[in-house]
Amino acid sequence: MVKASSKRAKTRQNETLAKTRSKKSIRKKKKIRVVEHTRSSALIFSNRELGWLNFNLRVLAEAEDPQNPLLERLNFLSISSSNLDEFFMKRVGGLKRHVAYGVSAKSSDGQTPEMQLAMIKKKIPAMFKKQKVLSEDLKKLLRHEGANIVSYSDLKDSERKFVRDFFNLNIFPILTPLSVDPGHPFPFISNLSSSLGVALLNPNNDEEKLFARVKIPRVINQWIFVEGTNKIVHLVDVIRAHLPDLFPSMKVVGSVLFRVSRNADSDREEEDAEDLLAMIEEELRQRRFAEIVRLEFGHCSDPWLKEFLMSQLELKEDDLYPMQQEFDLTDFSLLASSLNWPKHKFPTWSPVVPTALTDPAITIFDAIKKQDILLHHPFESFSASVERLIRDASLDPDVLAIKMTLYRTGDNSPFVKALIEAAELGKQVVCLVELKARFDEERNIYWAQELENAGVHVVYGVVGLKTHAKTALIVRKESDRVRCYAHLGTGNYNSSTSRFYTDLGLLTCDERITNELVEFFNYLTGKSLKQDYQHLILAPLNMFSKMKEYIQREREHAIAGRPALIMAKFNNMEENDISLALYEASQSNVPIHLIVRGFCCIKPHMKGISETLQVQSTLGRFLEHSRVFYFRNGHEDPLDGDFFIASADWMYRNLHARVESMSPIYDRTAKEKLWSILQMYWNDKKQSWTMKSDATYERKRKAGDASVGVQNELMRLAASPLNFTEDDLIKEEKE
Fold first, then answer.
1. pTM (2 d.p.)
2. Is 259 labeled as ligand-binding?
């Protein structure tokens, strides 16, 4: 166990190759045809990286869809570009590191790292082309609606004067041109920053070109709205037009927009760390200088610039990728937020207060004592349920202790504020802060230190495992006894993402769950070796074995002629042994319905292998993030089956290398609600895609389909005139 400490470990100088995980050998099964195909795993598994690229194509399809509002289409295009950034930093970066260290381990479908990099290089251009065409189409639509994106050279003289005055007043003082010569070394290029590379000549010596770099600042708006017109110019174009002002008396002979992506695939040895906090802080410093895995190029007016950059950055042709516009495509989301066009955005949604929590006469603890409360965000308010639970607990004089896990909690976190208040009021407060949450490490380090300074007991979890579980436990003194209340969820304790991620949560005081949650926190904070959990399912303790057990149980029910069904909704899938178990269940005619938003390495509809297995992917205005697992378990009434919500996907890392939680749903009303949610998603046509046996996808929606889509239907059902919304609560508080 690693506790928060003020110690600092010595700087780690040398990177070592991450330990490669050994895959369990596939056991032979009599009369199971899957065995015949394991020698050629490409026949039964699809490639993870290809699955991810296919997912991003579905995101791009949302940007193409004319049924989506115009500004939301810009957002989807921006998201597709941001997704690619993360893909290169994490996935391509990891593959390149494997190649550099000579790792030859193959993927589930039998490809080496070199083969996968070649496949990515081959597949990416089609996506780039689609982004480029789509960005031009959307610019035309914007122009038609009154927002005309133009280049600086297209402006009239009076318009140029406005932009030039704006440049001199608001942009020029921020810029820092950096030249390269014997007295000025090549500057550091930060991750995902856009820069202009400039080729210069000295009029007094025009034989040798000079290089200079101008970083595009992100501290100001990337779009400049030309006063008195409908014209918009991007910041890059304005800076490029005024390069001579940055290099007076020099001759600007060429320029190119470029952008780098650096490897974010980290390599850590936690077991050897004296202080995990210090190790993560050092890792963050090293990440700034990680190797470049991609160099994006705009239009290059001078080939010398490209050659110079490749030489200075020590890159090869395989590392180069074209930019689709003369600006970062993620800037489209900034433009969408700058345009006050409500009719071209999704209608505003205010989450409703869960019905069980609307009575102001009873406390949230009394409401939970009445019955378990299943929450579905963002259709139901996160603020009026989960935030309220922790906020009320922090102020309640009868609450003795609060224990929480924090993975990604965001800025200005109300949870951190509540925990600090609770500690200051003398309550026992324990918080596990996961320092290794990728791209949130710096924020989590800050919150860990703030909590510790306030007297909260801060721990960082189990050595070698990332704690991804989303759990909270409240211990309260009541008239007859001490009672525990719990929240177990599928998403983060993050107030911002709760408004546009779909997630589920359970509020309960059921002792079958809360008693084991006490043991779980002892496992996280102490040295508990408890293994025999009867109700909670936890990774890496028993989740993998339980999932295989439940899948096998459905197979046995099907063979015996009893009702069998497996339904699951989650984000990604690539755990081979779970996949093989599902194939076996399918061969015994178990209906298997998987709703997998992202990549999925299992293949449906394969003759003799997965004929009863179906996979679909749902995308929409909200990011599908909830994880639900259902097993019918031989019952005639589907509500008598086993329901679970979880923090984990069916991925190797979730089941074997992370601390994850899965909670059973026992309450009949909660089961009815969850069953209804699953059926709505499975029957959706407007927002969903079906996976084919070749791992490609096709829309379920057909021409003329008038359905509104599952997310819109869930909003419609939630928005009953009898329900309070978050906006209603805010009005009441003001009054």
1. 0.90
2. no
